[in-house]
Structure formats: C-alpha cells, structure tokens
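Q&A log
Question type: sequence-to-structure
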Amino acid sequence: MHGPAMSGWLLMALCAVTGSYCLLRTRTGSEEERRTARAEALMGFGMAAMAVPAAAVAPPTWGWGVYAALFAVAALRALWFSRPRFSRSNGHHLHHLVGSSAMVYMAVVMARAGGGGHGAHTMGGHSMAAAGGIPLLTGLLLVYYAVYVLRSGARLVPVAAATTGGGPPVAAGWAARPELALACRLTMGIAMFAMLLTL
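Response status: OK
Response body:
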C-alpha cells in the first residue's frame, strides 16, 4: 500500500473479483445465505472503490461522506439481522457489523485527511494524514482481522480437503462451493487488514 499505485490497483482488482463472486452466490442457497452473500458483495465492491488509486480517479471530499453513510446503513442492517430472531447463526452478521463499521471509520479518516494532499501514508494511492486514525481503534481492528484471517485460513484447508477427497467429485455450480465462499471471506479479511495498516 505504501509506494506505487500498483498495489492499489491489485487490491482493487482482488476486491472487485471477490465482490463479483459474492454476487453470483446471491442466486443460490437459503435466504440467510443470500443475505450474507449480498452483504459480502457490498463489502467487496466498497473496498474495491476505496482502493482505486487517486492518480486515476481522485474522489471529491464529499465522496468519503457517501462511503461513510452507505456503510453506516450496512452496519445497522447487520446489527438488525444479527438478532437471534432473524438468524440461527449470527456470527456472519456480527462480522459484517465489524467490517461495515471499519469501512465507516476509514471513510471518516479519509474525509478528515481531505482524501488527497501530501500525507505520509496512502490507501490505494489516496493520501492520508500520518496520524489520521485513532491508534487504539486501528490496533483493535488490526488484531480482529489478523485473528479472522488466521481462523479463516485454518477453516479453509479442511473444507477444501473434504470437497476434493474421499469419493467421487460432487457436481456443484460455482456459486455453491463452500471453499470458494471461505476463500472470498479470507481475501476480504486480508484486504481489510492491508487497508487498516495504512491508518
């Protein structure tokens, strides 16, 4: 993330591909699975938009306010659906609550930094003030995403082994592959960790 805009383009492409796959997942599964896929698609595309290098498209300062408002609504939605009445397993919704809140936090920091200028750090090529974020909050989010990434990676190995080994291959569409859904979550966790490092 520090240095050339190439890292911003790569992060943008990775998040956009992840968001696209999550959109495919919205066509299959239960209502709960489709709801989760929609939230993950929003997160993927939002992260992709936030990672576009400023040299290519410098968003206006008010654009960060739009990001903050959009993800504040997503955070409230995740909080609403995390209630046991709506979901048997509210872990995904609580994770989306943390992710959406982190996006609001980063958008607010970017808006305060002016979304451009001569800061020491960059997010996808967008300048940030060197001390733009709250160090304790940034540190807590970094710890959360580090643990999330390690946990997701550990969960991915047994799922991939179970789906490929021991018996004939099961025909499943791209949208119904549990290991791909886990890989997308892992990818977005790594991308969020990388973006938070810039604060």
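Response note: Strands lie at 121-123, 126-128.
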